[in-house]
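Design request, tokens follow.
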């Protein structure tokens, strides 16, 4: 078992190079990561999660047309000066928060060769330290401590750690899937024995989906460098983790933390809208008013879908 302590994980990698084609035309000129979830871009929720886990060094793997990400996590002196003149301290704090979350760095992926390739681009920045990987499509509720639990599991067992979540069996083909075995004395931490990317539900080893949170041993870089393109012609992180799970080599081995909390999938349009509504009803400024309006609106003809010929044409 590794002697690594939770404090060893001080860097996070956030892959953000995707084209966001499911959100076209909105994502034609705006990175999908900058689409607002209530009043913050989706990517800020992810960086805030890393900060809550004590991680203040973040590397984003980006691509073309992602300059807005860099602008968002930079200071906006003109805007801040204008808010100071207006004595609008509340908005000033909100504007400054994204720049105060930690040290956010950026590197381009270069070629769209998959999640494994994006993670490999972080090698020079990460070095020989364990590190977290957070996917921007998965927002974990701010009341949850998933990342902290994963870092603690890394401290107990070493190797790499993946986040797992039970999904309906007929949806497992949308995810990486893990075969697991129990660990003595653990309820929601399991040993991962095998992994497969987007399996046929009839052949899936379980209904445990790999969701977008990882704590990786630095040995993953060597494995990724030797991993051939897999599903979709891309270098799959799942394939590299499978090698680690089955190798027994130093730094190898994979455990999973089974997450049973609130997760918001902003990767497709319907789930994105659900995430906006669920977070809006809890918003400290507008939540109560929005919740009242929503409860009243769903009983109207429009809210109940009883109006004809009112659907937007897309």
């Amino acid at each position: 078992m590794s002697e690594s302590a939770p404090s060893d994980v001080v860097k996070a990698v956030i892959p953000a190079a995707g084209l966001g084609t499911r959100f076209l035309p909105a994502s034609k000129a705006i990175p999908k990561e900058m689409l607002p979830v209530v009043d913050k871009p989706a990517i800020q929720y992810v960086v805030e999660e890393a900060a809550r886990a004590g991680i203040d060094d973040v590397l984003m793997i980006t691509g073309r047309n992602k300059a807005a990400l860099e602008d968002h996590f930079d200071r906006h002196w003109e805007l801040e000066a204008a808010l100071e003149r207006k004595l609008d301290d509340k908005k000033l704090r909100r504007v400054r928060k994204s720049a105060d979350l930690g040290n956010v760095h950026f590197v381009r992926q270069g070629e769209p060769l998959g999640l494994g390739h994006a993670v490999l681009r972080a090698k020079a920045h990460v070095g020989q330290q364990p590190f977290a990987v957070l996917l921007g499509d998965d927002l974990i509720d701010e009341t949850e401590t998933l990342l902290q639990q994963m870092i603690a599991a890394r401290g107990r067992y070493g190797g790499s750690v993946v986040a797992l979540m039970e999904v309906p069996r007929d949806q497992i083909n949308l995810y990486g899937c893990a075969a697991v075995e129990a660990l003595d004395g653990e309820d929601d931490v399991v040993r991962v024995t095998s992994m497969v990317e987007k399996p046929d539900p009839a052949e899936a080893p379980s209904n445990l989906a790999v969701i977008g949170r990882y704590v990786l041993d630095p040995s993953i870089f060597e494995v990724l460098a030797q991993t051939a393109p897999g599903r979709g012609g891309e270098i799959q992180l799942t394939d590299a983790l499978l090698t680690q799970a089955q190798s027994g080599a130093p730094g190898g081995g994979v455990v999973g933390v089974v997450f049973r909390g609130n997760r918001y999938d902003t990767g497709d349009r319907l789930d994105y809208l659900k995430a906006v509504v669920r977070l809006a009803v809890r918003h400290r400024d507008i939540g109560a008013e929005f919740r009242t309006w929503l409860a009243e609106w769903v009983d109207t003809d429009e809210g109940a879908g009883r109006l004809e010929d009112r659907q937007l044409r897309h």
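Comment from the thread starter after seeing the answer: thanks! DSSP finds eleven helices and 13 strands in the chain.
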